[in-house]
Amino acid sequence: MRGDVEGIVKETVEASGGRLVNAPSISLPGTSHRNSGGSVRELPPLPTMVQYQPPNDIRPLTLTLPLHGQHQIDNLSTALGIIECLRQQPEYTHRIDNSSIVRGVRNTRWPGRMEFFQYSPSTERVVTILADGAHNKASATSLRRYIDEISPGRTSFVLSLSHSLSKDPSETLEPLLRPGDSAFMVPFSSVEDMPWVKPVNPTEMVTVAKRLIGESERIMTYDSYNNPIAPGDTSALSNALELVTKDSDLVVVAGSLYLIADLHRLKNSKPDVLFSL
């Protein structure tokens, strides 16, 4: 199947007068970050060290990638391919050197994608939060794979989904939720000047979650859906975090970038309780 797709892409590109460039391969020296010990490891994980061989250099570059997840390795490979294409253009040959590549990768930030926070509602309780805007089957699958690497076993979620006529909530929730997990379903706050953007009713998500998780007492929901949350109001998310973190070491906030935006608003309003790691 992959060969068929590559053939079609190559044919299409060449027909348009373009040239298909394969993304360069990069390697991960040393030990893998995969968790094989069956317990939560130190969070957040250290940046990933990768080696990249520029086409015209003898020595490989060692790059420090602060983004988490195997899919970000693939994204880096694609980005390096684009950079090498640019370096072949006369106007960029001397503007993009190896040191700028090393520096650019090291300084990369992607808010809302495998982003870690520390939540400290009291001096006795400190909880790690992993936030990711996974909102479809592919991104939810990548997120669950990463969760299993860093924290095998039961996971606690705070989830919200954006309503779409073409997408069923089960498409996103099925790759994420498993028997024994906990989940709190909340709506995100209203999006200013975008009244057509609405969250999925949490009760719809609960119906799917019960089938995937099993124990109804491990599923909680916001019960005031009929009263839309004002733009920027983070009270629903704050209440959810307060409840779901009581017996959790790792909480995952996911399902919508609008919910992740609420998390950042909460961080900005309560920097002594929630802050980035």
Summed up, what is this model?
The chain has 277 residues and is α/β, with parallel strands linked by helices. It is built from 8 helices and 10 strands. It has helices spanning 2-15, 70-87, 98-106, 137-150, 169-176, 202-213, 235-244, 257-269, and strands spanning 26-27, 48-52, 61-65, 115-122, 125-132, 156-159, 182-185, 219-221, 250-254, 274-276.
Number of strands: 10
- Radius of gyration from CA coordinates: 21 Å
Note the run of SSEs as H and E.
HEEEHHEEHEHEHEHEHE
Separate helix tally: 8
Global geometry: globular
Class computed from helices, strands and strand pairing: alpha/beta
Largest sheet: 7 strands, mixed
Strand order of the largest sheet: 8-7-6-9-5-4-10
Contiguous runs where pLDDT drops below 50 for at least 5 residues:
31-39
Helicity, as a percent range = 25-40%
Mean pLDDT: 86
Give the percentage of residues in beta strands: 15-25%
